[in-house]
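Supplementary material to the annual report.
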Amino acid sequence: MITFENLTKIYSGIKAVDNLNLHIEQGTIFGFIGPNGAGKTTTIKMMAGVLRPTKGRIYINGLDIAKAPSKVKKIIGFIPDRPFLYEKLSGVEFLRFKAGIYGMTGNRLGEKILYLLNLFELSDWADELIESYSHGMKQRLIIASAMIHEPRVIIVDEPMVGLDPRGAKLVKEIFKEWASKGATVFMSTHTLALAQEVCHQIAIVDNGRIVASGTSEDLKKQAGVEGDLEKIFLKITGGVATK
Amino acid sequence: MRIFKLLISPRFIGFKNSLKRSQSNSRLKILTLAGTGILFWLVLFFFTYRVLAYFSSQEMIGDILARHLLAMVFLTFFSMLIFSHIITALSNLYLSQDLELCYSSPASLAELFLSRSFYTVIDSSWMLLVFGLPVMIAYGVVYSAGLNYYLSLIYVSFPLIIISASLGIMIVMVLVRFFPAQRARDIIMYLSIILIILLYLLFRFLRPERLVNPDAFISIAQYLGALKAPSSPYLPSHWATDLLWARLTMYTGSQILNYLLLWSTAFAMVVIDVWLAGLIYSEGFSKAQEAKRRSHAGKRMLEKIVSAVIKPFGPESASLIAKDVRTFFRDNSQWSQLLLLGALVVVYLYNFSVLPLERSPIKSIYLQNALSFLNIGLAGFVISALSARFIFPAVSSEGRAFWIVLSSPLSSRRFLWSKYFAYLLPMLVLSEVLIIYTNYLLKVTPFMMALSSVTIFFLVFGIVALGIGLGAVYPNFHHENIAQVATGFGGLIYMISSSVFIALVIMLEAGPVYTILSAHFKGVSITHLQWIWVVCSFIGVIFVNIFAIKRPMAAGLKALNSYEG
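Predicted assembly:
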């Protein structure tokens, strides 16, 4: 469950995120879409505790991230858009490191790491240094590492960047499965087809504000257009592309 | 030429923009850096001036010594320039992130090569040029040289820089032709370590201290013979020395041959470099893009080290420390520098072993204890220098992957203190080894031995805290190379703070220690008032130490808590 209360972020006088209010129920895959510079990544970074809001609050499963950051971070899995990792660690060492900073130990950890490496087709590269991984492999490793502590909320920024079709399909299935088990997935993306396919609810954000939200059907009604999400998106966000 | 200008323009535009858009705090940084640079510049000028003034007061041998020194300066500059060009050429020609963009542009190979060589020359030579200038000006002032001398500086240094740059670039191109760029970097690293150690040994074997002590020679002829530098008429630095010396001493003979030699060699070297680039540069660049596969050698050893280091820590801190240890040992640029610093520590210890204490006119026991006291400061400074390179960048070493820590449940406090304790133990061990061994060589009294060991023990707590804390206050998570972190503004602030801290502790201890030692040697008792002073000073030391631990760590924590990546 995710709640935003008057969430605002101002960078040097510019409002990147402007008074967002939102409530997302548990088990929902939520799509957060908008044009470049709309405030999507800023919102996601605030949810992950990487940025601090200028005003407003974020509650994850009822916990205020400003008041209990460690408790919140224990239940979220964050997947950023750019795969910056510790290049001198091997894949398996990175997963051990990630598990360690989430306080995870024990004999079953090894099995879990093996399971994730197999799931994301990284077993053959497990002992190679991350610096030799391709962009897509790094992205898969980050997603695997976000899953290691079985988060209740997954926050993901552009999940499909760098993934091949097989990897993209795998990630979609994982998100669906995770949500069916009661986890919430908050996903920012430019891939509108992906949002339409997997998201239960979608919000369109522009200039830091939510300009439309709901299910795909709700958005159609709000935009007053028939057709796919792309048409709705272009109608709502305006710009040259609509002409 | 138009493409060449375009290719070199981003650096200048970027520099102009960063100056234009610099905020008041970054202007303060620039001012502080400039101030420190000017101070260093002035110190170098006055030091050279004093040395040369002393030489010129010595009849017969003064000029020989000054010329000898000039030749040494030029030879050193020339070697350092070649070395510096090798380092920067590797990154400018093969490893920079913008190279892909440049290579995919329609620029010709020659334009691309020349533009990257231009960057290499700028990066490698500006600092040496700036810091070589005070030495040259000091020569000009002492020898009352005319305008001609100062003009010669320009047309002598320019070809010298071009020759050294071409040589450096040539070496790198040949190396990368046979090894991938990453491997070539390792090779250069090892070579440089060996080179520096060899240079030092050579310097020690020459025993330069004898040259300022003519009494040690039986005859003048023998002394003059010892002064004679190895003749090197084929080296460009030799031509440069001849030219400038002629200008300094108003020698009227023709120097045309030396000019021709310098300039024609510079032109020839550029032509050879461009020709060589046409043959092997693009092949080398292509090789540089190859990923390096992991070497399994030493893996078991590393795992042993990791498990030993993380034993006392909880799972969160242990993960962080294990990651740091692995990263450290796999990054060759890190541990090879450690090797180099290790060599310097050995040199430091060696110097103590050859101190001629028995020949000193001061009573040996006094001198030994005074030196031991001075040694606390020196050891503290060595530890600070090591910390500047390895502990100050500890927070920044997270690099662009710092989001992982920020988004994890690991608190900033635990993150910072984990880093602190991980570095504390090795620094404590190293500092105690340094101080105990050097005190043993000095044969100091048990009192001084105990005092030095305890003082350095507590100093290390503060030095490490300053490194970690200030490293968090001035982080650089966007560095391309971790070695850059220590050379920034934060590194400078760290070195100043650390030196002030060490000086403060030593100043507080110096008076009481002198009183205690004097009383001991003179066989008199210490008065009540003196005891109060001694106790107050040592309480002061405790307070300074506590402050040096708490304040930077608190500042670092505050900075991390407000950091927005």
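Residues 24-57 of chain B form the longest helix (34 residues).
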